[in-house]
Write a structure and sequence with these properties.
Blueprint (H helix, E strand, L loop, with lengths): L24 E10 L5 H10 L1 H4 L5 E7 L10 E6 L5 E8 L3 E6 L5 E11 L6 E12 L2 H9 L2 H21 L2 E12 L5 H6 L2
Antiparallel strand pairs: 1-7, 1-8, 2-3, 3-4, 4-5, 5-6, 6-7
Protein name: DUF1990 domain-containing protein
Organism: Deinococcus radiodurans (strain ATCC 13939 / DSM 20539 / JCM 16871 / CCUG 27074 / LMG 4051 / NBRC 15346 / NCIMB 9279 / VKM B-1422 / R1)
Pfam families: DUF1990
């Protein structure tokens, strides 16, 4: 992929959380580990460049459709195919040394953002906190019903991101500290500043 030509996918509109159905959720999946054999900067770079290797192929698949193969930059786009009718495109909005963020594009079952980050552990030396955090609403009422009420998409998404966290620890060569954590906050439970992110 050269990234030189402008593809039709680049013109897709983003789907902000405020434009989705009225079921804004903050979902967090995180894992902590200590004494990695792969330095954290190298691990984060590997995640950025080989994100498809961290996603379980039977559940979800990442395909880069816009951008260079050996770099992750703002404006790059991916098609994510999740088992079942949950396919959608995302675009990179932010990249730094310890994180990157996607925004969902028109047609994605969710409207909002998802951020991947790797940061030092708050209390332990040579320990790290890897987290996947989404702030999104379902694209429309039908998706909300199928995803949340029936729970079909929610189960697939949780399995995907929990497996992603497991693979990060495996790649690091470190020792996992505790279980992989999953937390969901509904809109009425969110702090004001989190709600403001979705506007």
């Amino acid at each position: 992929m050269t990234g030189e030509s402008v593809k039709p996918e680049q013109h897709k509109d983003k789907q902000t959380a405020s434009s989705g159905a009225n079921n804004l959720l903050e979902r967090r999946y995180w894992v902590e580990f200590q004494n990695p054999t792969l330095p954290a900067p190298e691990l984060m770079r590997d995640i950025k460049l080989k994100i498809e290797h961290y996603s379980p192929g039977l559940l979800a698949n990442f395909e880069k459709t816009v951008g260079e193969e050996r770099e992750l930059r703002v404006g790059d786009q991916f098609c994510i195919r999740i088992l079942g009718p949950w396919n959608g495109d995302v675009r990179v909005t932010d990249v730094d040394d310890h994180s990157f963020t996607f925004e969902t594009l028109k047609g994605h079952p969710e409207a909002g953002t998802i951020c991947f980050s790797l940061t030092p552990h708050e209390h332990f030396a040579d320990a790290w906190h890897f987290e996947i955090r989404s702030l999104a609403a379902s694209r429309d009422g039908l998706v909300a019903f199928t995803y949340d009420t029936l729970g079909v998409g929610k189960k697939m998404q949780e399995k995907t991101w929990v497996s992603f966290c497991q693979r990060v620890v495996e790649k690091s060569g470190g020792q996992q500290l505790g279980d992989i954590q999953v937390r969901t906050l509904e809109k009425e439970e969110m702090p004001r500043e989190v709600k403001a992110e979705a506007e």
